[in-house]
Amino acid sequence: MLNAALQTVGPYRVLQELGRGRRSKVLLAQSDGGAPVALKVAAEGLAREFALLRALAHPNVVGAHAQGRFGSGEWLALEAAAGCAHGPAREDLVVSRARQAATALAHIHHGGWVHRDLKPANLLLSQGGTLLLADLGSAAPRGQPGAARGV
Fold first, then answer.
1. Is the confidence at residue 36, as pLDDT, over 90?
2. Of 32, 92, 117, 135, which is the active-site residue?
């Protein structure tokens, strides 16, 4: 798929790998003098995800900064999260995060889309502790074949 030892992608210098999915991987990266970003790299499909993230911008949806092509694939620069939102937590914090996740999903649904990949790995925390819904790569327009029924 993609070179396992990427050192630069577009204008970004790769610092470390953060995770892998079925069709992509996420790297911690930084441009010269810029803030760190989560750089998603894949063979294809990231231009669509970038456009969708920009159209559905919301405080509880991960922010998309830039998108481009490199060598054998595409890259998508995303808001760097502080970590995942799953694991042990106080009840009030769990309730707050569940409300934030529901708010993000409602926003996406109101925009005419279904996320289709809701799981703990796609619930992140911003640097300030706000829940961020990530990974709209599998999202589909509401009502289209393959989208969740009854949404």
1. yes
2. 117
The per-residue b/e assignment along 69-80, b for 16 or more CB within 10 angstroms, e otherwise, is eeeebbbbbbbb
What's the full length of the chain, in residues? 151
pLDDT band for position 146 (cuts 50, 70, 90): low
For the question of residue 117 being annotated catalytic, the response is yes
Average pLDDT over residues 99-127: 96
φ and ψ at residue 110, rounded to 5 degrees: -60, -30
Q: Report which DSSP code applies to 122.
A: G
Separation of alpha carbons 24 and 17, rounded Å: 11
Report the predicted TM-score, pTM, of the whole model to 2 decimal places.
0.87
SS3 151: coil
